[in-house]
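Class I adenylate cyclase: structure, please.
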Amino acid sequence: MWRTQEIHPDIDDGIDRKVLAQLRARFLKVNSGRLERAVQGLSTRQQQALKLLPLLFHVNHPLLPGYVSGSTPAGLSGYEPDNELLAEARRLTRSFVYKPRRGASPQPIYGLFLMGSLGTIAQAEQSDMDIWVCHAPDLDAQSLAELQRKCTLLEAWATSQGTEVHCFLVDPARFALGERETRLTSDDCGTTQHYLLLDEFYRTAIWLGGRTPLWWLVPTYEEPRYEQYVETLLSKRFIRADEVLDLGHLAWIPPGEFIGASMWQLYKGIESPHKSVLKLLLTEVYASEHPRVACLSLRFKEAIYANRLDLDDLDPYIAVYRRLEEYLLGRGERERLELIRRCLYLKVDKKLSRPPHNRRKSWQWLLLERLTADWKWEARQLAMLDSRSQWKVRQVLAERRALVNELTYSYRFLSQFARSGQFSGTLSNRDLGVLGRRLYAAFERKAGKIEFINPGIAPDIAEDALTLVQCPSPGGARGSLWALFAGSLNGLEWQDFAPLKRSRDLASLLAWCHRNGVIDAGTGMSLHPGDSDLGEHELSNLLASLQQAFPLPLPPIEESALLCASAPVEVLLLINVGVDPLKQHSLKNVHLTSGRTDALSYSGARDNLVLTLDQVTLNSWNELLVSRYDGPDALLDCLRDYLNALPADGPKPRLRIRCFCRNRARTIVSRVEELFGEAQALLEDSGSTRYLLQVQQHFHVLRLERGQVSHASLTDLHALVEHLGREQPSYSPLQLDRHALADRDLALILPLGRPDCIQVFYQVNDNRAKLSVLDEHNALWCQSLPFHDEQSLLAPLQRFLQSLLYRRNAMLPLEGQQPATTLEIAYYEVVTPTPKRDRHLERRSPPAAAVSHPYYDVQVIVEPAAQDKVHATLYCNHREFSELEYGAGLYAAVARHILAQRSGAQRYPCYITDLDLSRVLPTGQAQTVHYLRYKTSLEERLNQALQDG
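Here you go.
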């Protein structure tokens, strides 16, 4: 180490050129030491490639690597190769003869600099080389294109020599102004980090040839007036302009760059957190010091000026660590400091618990040994970190917790920093929001989400052997759970071990194993199924289905996907996992044979074979979610949630349905595929409809409205009819599943609903008739009546409907608006089945009442009363009967009057012919089913009074 005095150049007192030369020599001494260290870590062929790069940029020779044309920019400023290097070049091609450049021949390559981890403690065999090719600002577009082509050819040649090289063209004049159009390192986030990238360049770059940085010669205390200082150096010829290149200063770093750098590192940290944590925390340190940021490049320059030239102390990674250590100790954050130490140790990747190669300790090894000794790390901790390639679930989970805490803390710090100042930075709330969603998708816990535990922590956490157990819930709680244990354990052993993972349901546990790579093709599985019906065949198929539906690794998330709400991409529906729907028959070794093969109403017992469903969904944010459905409405709940999750626009998810239970698995899959396919098609085609499904003896009506699918579960036919009779705000189509209401009249009636049409259906069975009506909104009304003949059955209903239409039309304007659609009334007879023909419908003409048969007119006016009650006033052939006169005996009085009008006081039913609900139902909201319901209720009271009179 040099032991000369510290240098403090003062421009006002004059600068000695010898002092400047001494400063430059110090930087070059450190540079030489770093370059030597870099070369030590390279193979012979890699060393040759690195040594030859300056010469290959200096000359154009047709037989040397990188040749494009004789006019390609070449000539490295102030560079002259030595004889040893020329001999290396002649080994590539014997015809090469070097001709020194004479006089003022152009030298458009201003400088070559090596970026990256080479020459640092973190250099590894696979480390790549980022080369900055600084060129003259006046190169035209064609020259730049040829120079870029030369770089590409040299990269390809370096690859043939066993090294990865990336060349980046840099215009120093534009760069100093913060202008650039391309990435400048293979780890560069773009144009949002100009000053932070410059900071990294000044403290890490290794000069390979050409002009040296002018920044070297400007003391740190002169950084705020960098331009004036440089102008003085050049104008007074303390230095020659053709010996230096100027990339700018670091007097001030815009705060927006801290946000940009943090976002970039957080983005990378999702996949490789260990690599990003160091840079993330350094950005936090810088941001915490804003606006007076003592960046590491300034500290590096201060050390050179102070003649502190120890290569270990100036190592870029050691300098970063020391700065972070200082920051964290000052804040008392020991846990974060330990994480930083682990990240640095893993980055250096020298396994101190094992003997080094060839028993020779490199300088990196020795330096890391000193560090870990200072940290008081024990041999056990070193061995644990050195075995990272063999880490399994427990170690990965522990490390993940620390890393996720750090990434989450960094995001919160970044968000707070972004809100704390008015930064007209290069990043927007949109960018911050996208990053937040990336972190949320990667690390946030939520119900049903499968946690990804290995974001680049260990290369492979697959277990050689696992034991899967269904065991009782702890603490005497009802039910059971599934547990996964490492190793192959028998029925007694597993109780003495702590499981790797527990889950209430098997599908979630298997999805967790698949997503995290805990199970692979080589994993042996021991199964203790408990009281479930799970077998090894089903378990194998379940794992295979997960692997087929969600192949790993998952594709990267596109930013466009994060700008929208997450949507399902792949859906795997697993039916009856570990459940045999016909277990009672399997135990008896009985196989049912039946013509009723519908899996939702199987055999004469009408068994529902779909008992449980597990929906595994991969969404557009790469979140894997599992939803469990069981109970009597499991299938409908699952279908509802699936339909509601479908995106309104864009591609629909791929749906796979699998079942591996012992009985009727294919039948079950086929039936559920049919159901999901038909419901989805109805939703997409109509956008709003109802869908009727029958499961066993129960009925389910799905209301299919995009994003708002709901379903009603109805225990029997009576409940179904009541539900279908509810009013609808507008016409609502009803689609029947092909197995619903088999052998019932409603299976013929319900599909015939039409808008703007009242449809009457009747069926005669001996002395009873059943009337059914589908109104203009497709609401259903049913009534059973005594039957005498079709005329007496249908004529009263026809008269009522006609009066209803008359009242409705009378309330509509005649002018100034679009005329309302006239409702049609259609009649159908349900014809009973015969040996030659099934039950069917036949259209009938409306009944026509003969003029010679006048009917008895019964009109009712309904008005609202207190406490949501109504008053009814009846008019029998225009004679008024009201509660004001008769009170509770209203209907008895009407019955006496009607009986008095009949010959022999016959007690056959009386029908209401006209009904006014204008005070009860707001105009425009009344539909035919409202009137029919009131009609039925009023007629029941009236006819009961007739029977009692």
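Notes: The longest strand covers residues 757-765.
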